[in-house]
Design brief:
This protein is mostly helical. It has eight helices and no strands. The chain has helices at about 1-10, 15-25, 35-40, 45-60, 65-70, 75-100, 105-125, 135-160.
Length: about 160
């Protein structure tokens, strides 16, 4: 009896036909799914995700967020201005101390020069970015303070001694 049943069902391949139909029809064909799929293909956020993923890898390698912004070119303008102001101040201090005579206080220019050197060699060549804006500001303020304090001290000692 089983042999007759198998012969009967061998000619009916409904399962293979159903599988072939399911391969042609997908769930995207119902409820405007094709529109959703097309919109997704056009407006996929893969680029943003890849950029974020790359930045996370850079952070894991020890590069901080400021250098990532500097690589984009969005955060370097203030730091460059202060770095250039430090250079200008260095030449002003050298010229000032060369013309002051006995009131000259060259350690301010020396401190500024030694502060700019790490800015050039360590920050730019080693870290591949400019020194931070805060570093340049502090260096400028310390040099001005040292020059004023040194001149006041020399003036006091020279005239009141």
């Amino acid at each position: 009896m089983k042999k007759n049943d198998l012969d009967l069902f061998e000619g009916n391949d409904w399962l293979s036909r159903e599988r072939a139909r399911e391969k042609r029809v997908s769930a995207w064909d119902f409820d405007e799914g094709r529109k959703v799929r097309n919109e997704h293909e056009e407006n996929c956020d893969v680029e943003n995700v890849a950029r974020t993923h790359h930045q996370e890898h850079l952070l894991e390698e020890g590069v901080n967020r400021n250098s990532i912004r500097q690589m984009d070119g969005s955060d370097t303008s203030g730091a460059v201005k202060w770095f250039l102001m430090d250079f200008v101040m260095l030449f002003v201090l050298i010229f000032l101390n060369a013309n002051l005579g006995r009131l000259a206080f060259p350690p301010a220019a020396i401190v500024l020069f030694l502060g700019i050197n790490p800015g050039i060699f360590i920050w730019i060549f080693l870290f591949k970015r400019f020194p931070s804006k805060i570093y340049c500001k502090i260096l400028f303020i310390v040099a001005v303070f040292l020059q004023i304090a040194g001149m006041a001290m020399k003036y006091t000692m020279y005239y009141y001694h």
